Inverse folding.
């Protein structure tokens, strides 16, 4: 992989990338020379160089005027990755300890059916359904890479003794650890490729059925508390479950 691509993946801006690559070529240089070599305007070069210094990619030598030196990318980028890993670990720890206000969610309303447009509204409804579950959750989540809110509500359901069965499309590097944790917490998980379909049934009383556009990833969902529909979806899920294979992690 080219260093420019790697820098981009680390969130380095275009101007920062240009200045750093230019300084790597120059080795050690004054700001005016870096500006010329990198095509970053002289009016902005000091700001960009200070950001690179804060990120540990360059050092500033105490000369008059200042001299800038690129730090070996094999060292600098490893340190950046280590710092990002530590930050992510801290965020994961904080996410587990989040104090989320209890939602006052009414019990299912008789034969309520609504259409939801977009991913955010779908995920919000799924989280609320997780909170209402008392006995059983059946779900077809696609690839299954849940956000923090859905992870917390699913964990709370498991702690309440709710049986969770999940029928997902694939095991990926992003969801592998989550799946291991869920399996150890008592969730049952099988694999089946049902591209474009998302389904969740709660206690055979509520259901949300979503269709996902494979190109745009946009989705439209139908949520209902019609028990006959929810029960029919549960029967459909059971038939798929019986013919699906357990995941291997």
């Amino acid at each position: 992989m080219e260093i420019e691509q790697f820098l981009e993946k680390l969130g380095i801006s275009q101007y920062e990338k240009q200045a750093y690559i230019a300084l790597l070529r120059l080795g050690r240089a004054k700001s005016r020379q870096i500006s010329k070599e990198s095509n970053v305007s002289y009016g902005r070069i000091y700001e960009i160089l200070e950001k690179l210094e804060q990120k540990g990619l360059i050092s500033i030598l105490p000369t008059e005027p200042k001299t800038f030196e690129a730090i070996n990318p094999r060292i600098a980028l490893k340190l950046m990755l280590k710092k990002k890993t530590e930050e992510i670990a801290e965020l994961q720890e904080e996410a587990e300890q989040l104090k989320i206000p209890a939602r006052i969610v009414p019990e299912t309303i008789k034969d309520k059916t609504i259409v939801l447009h977009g991913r955010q509204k779908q995920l919000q409804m799924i989280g609320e359904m997780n909170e209402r579950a008392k006995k059983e959750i059946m779900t077809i989540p696609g690839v299954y890479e849940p956000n923090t809110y859905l992870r917390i509500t699913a964990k709370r359901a498991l702690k309440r003794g709710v049986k969770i069965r999940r029928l997902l499309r694939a095991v990926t590097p992003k969801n592998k650890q989550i799946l291991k944790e869920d399996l150890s917490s008592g969730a049952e998980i099988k694999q089946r490729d049902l591209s474009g379909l998302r389904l969740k049934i709660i206690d055979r009383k509520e259901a949300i059925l979503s269709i996902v556009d494979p190109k745009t990833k946009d989705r439209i969902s139908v949520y209902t508390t019609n028990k006959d529909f929810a029960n029919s979806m549960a029967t459909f899920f059971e038939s798929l479950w019986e013919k699906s294979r357990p995941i291997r992690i």
Summary: The chain has two domains: 3-96, 113-246. The chain has a mean pLDDT of 86.
